[in-house]
Amino acid sequence: MLLSATPPPGPRPAQQARLYEEAARHRGLTPPRTHPLASITWLGPAASNPALAHRVSGDPVHLAESRRWIEAAVRLPHWGKAHMPDHDLDAGWLLHHLSLAYRWVGDELPDGVRALLRYKLLLQGRRMYEFAVASEGRWWSSSYWQNHNWICYAGLATAGYVLGKEEWTERAKDNLGTVLDLMPEDGSHAEGVVYWRYGVPFLAIHLDLLQEAEGIDWWDRGGFLSHTFRYRLHQLAPGFAFNVDHGDCHDRRSGHSAGLYYRLAAQYGIPQAQWLGDLASGELLWQEAAESGVRPGILPEAYLEYLWYDPSVAAARPTQTRAFFPDLGLLAARTGWDDDATLVSFKASPGGGHKAWETSAEHRAERGWETLNQGHHHPDSGSFVLVSQGAFLAVDEGYSNRKRAAHHNLLLVDGQGYADEDRYHVYKDIPFERQARQRDVLAGPDCGWAHATAEIAAMYDPALGVRRLDRTLVFTPSGRLVLLDLAEADTAREWTFLLQTDRPTEPRPDGGRLIRSGAASAVVRRFAPLDAAVVSEATEVEANPTSSTPELRLTRTLHTLRATTARSTRALFLTSIVPGPAPAAAERVGCEEGQGVTFGEETVLLSPVARRIRTASVSADAAAVLLGTDGSAPYVVAATRLVLDGRVLLDVPEPYTGKVG
């Protein structure tokens, strides 16, 4: 598709209009004569989109526009200035786009321009290739789970195929095969949604090139590409415009890639991806372009939308409301997809996810290579994001350079977050055993409930003697949250529960706290401990999201609610968060054993460690019993026995999770 500029057959009027619009967008700008300090990645699509528009329409105006930007790019002695000139993202982007422009319209350029473009591509490709060889085992050359690796090698591959440089394409292909084998099969991505939309399209680009140039179909190799749309889908906030911002996310808007949605829809027959591509390139396009903090952003992808859109793929609105991604330990659950629906996203895993953590440790031991770059990963295992009524209520920090657990909805021990944090690479050089994980997950596609327990004790400084820090999160069918935090240490510690919001929470007469965000709201009730010291304070977060633009600074103010216990070797926090303008009253359930919260029609009973629950009507050997009063069957987690109102509903030798009856 890409090399021949040949899309799937059929009409594509919307995509063609997008292409022509993008081809003309820079006509009022004067190309730079010297290299600006900021990134020049945008110069590539400024040339390739009008080149494709000319190829499609034959309009010489588009050819002249492409030539204007080609000449500007080839005049620059280096691609990239502030960070790793010729060897990083600027060079990768320009190699890809200008190689395509050379392929598409090179024969129609004046001889001198064509010769200069070819010379420049050969020069920059050689510089990129030599750097990749020389730096193997360090930085992006072998950072298999990182967007720099995917973009730089895709750029090198594009130039190699266009210029006939087999040495380049073979190295890039070997790397691509390794990446596909090592990416998680569940399609999740530890760098977060923003870097997913920035980097993963280049994996699809490379696969497209490989298939067209060499006849090699690796689209199903490893499983990542075939499942990654599901990951992206379930990190969408209700209403589809915003994204859950786990990992480094410049903002909550920079999440869509219509071109990639179309390619995944066409390759794997995913109607929801086709539907979302139409939405992202239509109704949502210009607001994302205006509010996105990522450049070049969504607009330059017009060439991909045109070439990857397959009109024969049916489109269908998403309906599934529960998903779990085991590699990243990511649980996502929602009440629906409409603008006012409620969503929670809850994660816990080792740095980079289980597969990356384990495989990179093998690379380090066997080869002496550092292959897992953790710059965009956060100390956020056990944290969650809550969205409801069209607004973010419990929030994440987004992007930061000095990453800290205190910027997330987590717990502190004696005021301390994760060991070795407060730096950019929070997981670098830490012991292999320092891993978080999720257990006891309930997230079936037809299940109204969602449940998981995050084990995060290993993430704290061993000197604190934390033996247990388990967070259990339950999401009810109506979108209410129950959190149970169980903590134990060798010596008495202060334990602090953190809740991050976009504006200060407000105290309520009943002892709860009110979260407001625009017209949206939720009530927070803490049932234990009742004697915690509660304060609300502002937390400032600052970041430079790109080394290629060193003067850029993003700042954000979180409002942090802190509840701190007296010093103790054990602590228990039992908390509910109920969204809505008229939230149902939450009450603690009297339990002889276990912990419980009821909202009237929904009741949550928990015992994640002892797995013994005893109330007036329930006797269970289980991590959780989840009850509704609408006549629906109860759900259990890790249960061997359940007696409800004197009736034995479950009695099995092995723990069972799911619906009973």
The Rg value, from CA coordinates, equals 26 Å
> Portion of residues in helices?
25-40%
End-to-end distance, in Å? 52 Å
Summed over residues and divided by their number, the pLDDT gives a mean of: 96
How large is the share of residues in beta strands?
A: 15-25%
Q: Assembly type of the shown chains? A: single chain
SS-derived structural category? alpha+beta
What's the number of helices?
Answer: 14
Strand order across the biggest sheet?
A: 7-8-9-10-17-14-13-12
Shape: elongated
Sheet with the most strands? 8 strands, antiparallel
Number of strands: 25
Task: List low-pLDDT spans.
Answer: none
Description:
By secondary structure, the protein is of the alpha+beta class. Helices cover 30% and strands 25% of the residues. The chain contains 14 helices and 25 strands. The strands form four sheets. An eight-stranded antiparallel sheet has the order 7-8-9-10-17-14-13-12, with no helix packed on it. Strand 19 and strand 20 (602-606) form a beta hairpin. The two termini are 52 Å apart. The mean pLDDT is 96.
Quick summary:
30% of the residues lie in helices and 25% in strands. The protein has 661 residues and is α+β, with helices and mostly antiparallel strands.
Task: Walk me through the topology.
Layout: H1 13-24, H2 43-57, H3 60-75, H4 89-105, H5 111-134, H6 147-163, H7 166-182, H8 193-214, H9 224-234, H10 258-268, H11 271-281, H12 285-291, H13 302-308, E1 322-325, E2 330-334, E3 343-347, H14 354-367, E4 384-388, E5 391-394, E6 411-413, E7 437-442, E8 450-455, E9 466-475, E10 481-493, E11 495-501, E12 506-507, E13 513-517, E14 520-528, E15 533-543, E16 554-564, E17 568-579, E18 587-588, E19 595-598, E20 602-606, E21 613-614, E22 618-621, E23 624-628, E24 635-644, E25 647-659
Antiparallel strand pairs: 1-2, 2-3, 3-4, 4-5, 6-11, 7-8, 8-9, 9-10, 10-17, 11-16, 12-13, 13-14, 14-17, 15-16, 18-19, 19-20, 20-23, 21-22, 22-24, 23-24, 24-25
